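TASK: fixed-backbone design
INPUT:
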């Protein structure tokens, strides 16, 4: 199955795809469908704790705000909550923004 997926999407980074699969297996997250694989980015539909979610995995150490926004837009199009995976942590500035937005109630215009 993996070989046919790799041929279908011309995956150059078979090792990265396998890392993603291994992590998902450890966390008991089931892959439902492969949406897209390109340029070091894998988009999957997964089942996590009984709920369908979109998972976007980036084959890079630093994810940027633009990567998060891109993942958010994909999740909105699919009407699903989303998970982001990367090879490293988000930069402190990005992590601070994420933390700030989590507790933000609203932004209002005067």
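OUTPUT:
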């Amino acid at each position: 199955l993996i070989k046919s997926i790799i041929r279908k999407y011309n995956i150059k980074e078979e090792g990265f795809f396998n890392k993603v699969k291994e992590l998902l297996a450890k966390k008991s997250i089931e892959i439902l469908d492969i949406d897209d694989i390109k340029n070091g980015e894998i988009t999957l539909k997964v089942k996590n704790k009984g709920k369908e979610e979109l998972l976007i995995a980036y084959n890079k150490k630093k994810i940027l705000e633009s990567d998060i926004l891109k993942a958010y837009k994909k999740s909105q199009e699919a009407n699903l909550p989303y998970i982001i995976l990367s090879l490293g942590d988000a930069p402190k500035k990005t992590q601070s923004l994420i933390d700030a937005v989590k507790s933000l109630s609203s932004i209002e215009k005067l």
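COMMENT: The first helix runs from residue 2 to 9.
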